[in-house]
Design brief:
mainly alpha, 2 domains, 3-stranded antiparallel beta sheet, 18 helices, 3% strand, disordered C terminus
Length: 385
C-alpha cells in the first residue's frame, strides 16, 4: 500500500495538483479584485464603454492570469537557470530601444515585436530581481563583507538604470535602483558599504538631469510651484489636484466625474487613473483601493518571510518592492508629492507591458510561496553568522 502511495505521489499529475493546491488563492483573489477596479475605472474613462480601454485590458489580464499560474508552478532551480538569460535579453532589448525604439512624448520606450508594442524597461525590473537573487543566494554573510563580491551585482543594477535614463524614463530608472538597493540590503550588505554606494548618487542625479528632455526638466522646475505654468508643465498636476478635491468624501458618482468625463484630466486612462477613480468614488473609494494595494504588498512580504530558502526570499522581497515602488511613485505623483513621471498604477492603469510584467512578477511571488519549503539555496547558520 505504501509503495502504491509513493508511486501515486510521483505521478506528474499528482505533483501538479499538489502545487495548485499550495497556491495562495486568497492572494489571487486580491489580484483579481484590483484588476476589477481597473476594468471599472477604464470603462468610465471611455465614457461608459468597454472600448478602447476596458475590454483590451481584460483580455490582457486573462492572458496574464494564465502566465501567472504557469510561472507559479516553476521550481526554484528552473528560475535560477533562466535568471541570467532573461537578464541579458532584457539588456539587449534596452539597447535596441535606444537605436530603433518607438518614440512617444519625447521618449523612446517601446519596441515593435511581431506587431506588438513592448516596453523593455518593464521586463528589465523582473529580470533584475531574478539575476540579483541568483547571485546573492550563493553568497553567505561573510562574503558580503568583501567589496569584490559586490562589484558584479552593482554593475548589474547600474547598467539597466543608465540605459533606462537614456530613453529617458526617470520614474522607471528610480524603481530599478530602489529594487537593487533593497536586495543589496536584504542580502546582508554592511552599513559602510551602503554609504560607499551612495557616494556617486549626486553624480548620477546630475547625469540623469542633463539627459532629460525639456518637458521633463520643466516638470521638475514647476514641481513646487505648478501655478507658474498653469497651461504648460503645471497643467497635469493642477487638474489632478482639482479632480482629487472635487471627489470629496463619497465622490461625484460613477461615470459622473466632471474633470474626467469632460476630458480636463490628462492621461486619465494611464498615469492619472487614480485621480479619476478618487473623483468618482471620493476619499472613501480611494482609501479602499489603497488598502487593497497594501494587502497585496503585505502579502508579498509575508511570502518572503515564510520562505525557507534564500533565493525564494530574495525573489519575493524584490517583487514586493517593485510593486510597492510602482504604487508609491504613481500615487505620490498624482497627489503632487513628487514631479510627474510616466509610472502607471499596477493592474489599474491601461497598458499591456506593465500588465504582463506585474502578472509575471506575481507568478514569481506565488512560486516562492508554492516552493517555500524547498531546500534549494536554504538559509543556514553560516549565512547568518
Amino acid at each position: 500500500m505504501k509503495f502504491h502511495k509513493r508511486l501515486l505521489r510521483d505521478e506528474p499529475s499528482f505533483r501538479l495538483l499538489s502545487k495548485l493546491w499550495r497556491i495562495s488563492w486568497l492572494y489571487v483573489l486580491l489580484i483579481c479584485a484590483l484588476a476589477g477596479v481597473g476594468y471599472v475605472t477604464l470603462y468610465s474613462a471611455a465614457g461608459g464603454a468597454p472600448y478602447p480601454f476596458a475590454a483590451p485590458q481584460a483580455a490582457r489580464f486573462a492572458v496574464g492570469l494564465v502566465l501567472m499560474i504557469t510561472v507559479a508552478m516553476l521550481p526554484p532551480k528552473i528560475l535560477v537557470r533562466g535568471a541570467w538569460p532573461l537578464y541579458f535579453v532584457s539588456i539587449i532589448l534596452l539597447v535596441a530601444v535606444l537605436h530603433m525604439g518607438h518614440t512617444g512624448k519625447g521618449a523612446e520606450r517601446w519596441l515593435m515585436i511581431g506587431g506588438l508594442q513592448v516596453q523593455p524597461s518593464e521586463y528589465a525590473k523582473v529580470a533584475l530581481v531574478l539575476a540579483l537573487a541568483s547571485w546573492f543566494y550563493r553568497i553567505n554573510y561573510r562574503r558580503m563583507g568583501n567589496p569584490l563580491w559586490l562589484i558584479p551585482p552593482a554593475f548589474m543594477v547600474l547598467l539597466p538604470v543608465v540605459l533606462v535614463l537614456k530613453e529617458p524614463n526617470l520614474g522607471t530608472a528610480t524603481i530599478i535602483g530602489g529594487i537593487g538597493a533593497t536586495l543589496f540590503f536584504a542580502a546582508g550588505m554592511r552599513l559602510w558599504q551602503i554609504i560607499l554606494l551612495l557616494l556617486p548618487v549626486p553624480y548620477l542625479a546630475k547625469f540623469a538631469y542633463t539627459h532629460l528632455h525639456d518637458y521633463q526638466r520643466a516638470r521638475i522646475t514647476t514641481f513646487l510651484n505648478p501655478e507658474s505654468d498653469p497651461l504648460g508643465a503645471g497643467y497635469n498636476i493642477i487638474q489632478s489636484k482639482i479632480a482629487l478635491g472635487s471627489g470629496g468624501m463619497w465622490g461625484q458618482g460613477y461615470l459622473h466625474g466632471s474633470q474626467g468625463q469632460l476630458n480636463f484630466l490628462p492621461e486619465k486612462q494611464t498615469d492619472f487613473i487614480f485621480t479619476m477613480l478618487a473623483e468618482e468614488w471620493g476619499f472613501a473609494g480611494a482609501i479602499a483601493v489603497i488598502g487593497l494595494l497594501l494587502l497585496l504588498i503585505l502579502g508579498g512580504m509575508v511570502m518572503a518571510i515564510r520562505s525557507r530558502n534564500r533565493f525564494g526570499r530574495l525573489v519575493a522581497l524584490g517583487i514586493s518592492m517593485n510593486f510597492f515602488l510602482y504604487c508609491l511613485v504613481n500615487l505620490s505623483m498624482v497627489m503632487g508629492a513628487i514631479p510627474v513621471g510616466g509610472v502607471p498604477l499596477p493592474l489599474v492603469s491601461y497598458g499591456g507591458s506593465a500588465m504582463l510584467n506585474v502578472m509575471l512578477g506575481f507568478g514569481l511571488l506565488l512560486s516562492t510561496w508554492v516552493h517555500r519549503d524547498s531546500r534549494f539555496g536554504e538559509i543556514n547558520e553560516e549565512d547568518t553568522q
